[in-house]
Design goal:
9 strands; seven-stranded mixed sheet; 38% helix
């Protein structure tokens, strides 16, 4: 049986709170910021823990909404093939399993980091994880044979040279399906949203150049018009109070002082609340069909 998102967070909390309790300082968490295009060091298990405690709850909800919408656009009488680029700990696999409980699918997740907190594979739809840079993986494919190509908050990590490589693959490789869908999770702030949307548009245009039409509005970004707590839409999503209490006051658990060069960064970066509302949800679902 698939673990609940609440129990998943609780399990990570047990490990993270033990680390906090036994650490004099938490300064090694300082690199955990997305500011100025920074990508956190996900090979650090404690950064993994903090990242997931802050974001897994919201991402699981967002990806479930995405997959629910995507599945309505596809013929699911046959076994669906999904590739998730930059899958991380398989949060989108969890969301897919919960959105697609009665249907068969084949899921392949690709990530350069083998995360410590990957969701467990579930029958009858086990996943396959490939530890590889997603750019190299796409480049090595002989053909593109999936129904769904999913980018779970990974589109922002694609550098310009890598984007050229991805676009070349989608433009020149054989696409075996007559209908495919891109699911792309975007960042919410205005500047980064524009960057991510520009990246997704370039990938979309490369698919169009490969003999497809896009039935979706490339300029449309799906979002919630009003801010609501996630639990309003998913009553089973209950974020543990003790986890929130720790994250709200994490800086107080760090013993660095005014004399330490990292003190200001610790104060700024450690006390950040988990994402429990719909404010930052932004995504695109792009549907393509082969031209006759």
């Amino acid at each position: 049986m698939m673990i609940s998102i609440n129990d998943y967070i609780n399990n990570i909390f047990q490990d993270f709170s033990g680390y906090v309790k036994n650490s004099e300082k938490l300064c090694d968490l300082n690199p955990f910021t997305f500011e100025a295009g920074n990508i956190p060091d996900y090979s650090n298990i404690h950064i993994q823990q903090l990242y997931l405690l802050r974001y897994a709850f919201a991402y699981a909800f967002e990806y479930k909404r995405m997959y629910s919408k995507i599945l309505k656009k596809l013929n699911i009488d046959t076994k669906l093939k999904i590739k998730s680029f930059g899958c991380g700990p398989m949060i989108d696999y969890w969301s897919l399993c919960n959105a697609c409980e009665e249907h068969s699918f084949e899921y392949i997740g690709i990530d350069i980091i083998d995360w410590n907190y990957k969701f467990e594979s579930q029958n009858p739809n086990p996943y396959r994880f490939i530890k590889e840079n997603m750019i190299e993986y796409i480049k090595e494919l002989k053909e593109l044979d999936s129904d769904i190509y999913f980018f779970p908050k990974s589109i922002c990590e694609i550098k310009n040279d890598d984007l050229t490589s991805i676009c070349d693959s989608f433009r020149t490789k054989r696409i075996s399906k007559d209908k495919i869908i891109l699911g792309i999770s975007l960042r919410a702030d205005v500047r980064n949203l524009e960057i991510d949307a520009c990246t997704s548009e370039k990938i979309a245009n490369s698919i169009i150049e490969n003999g497809f039409i896009c039935k979706s509005d490339l300029n449309k970004c799906i979002r919630f018009e009003e801010s609501h707590g996630i639990r309003k839409f998913e009553s089973s999503f209950i974020y543990p109070d003790e986890v929130k209490a720790l994250l709200d006051n994490l800086y107080n658990e760090c013993s660095c002082s005014d004399e330490d060069s990292c003190e200001e960064k610790c104060r700024e970066h450690l006390n950040r609340q988990p994402v429990l509302r719909t404010d930052n949800i932004r995504y695109q679902i792009l549907e393509f069909e082969r031209t006759k």
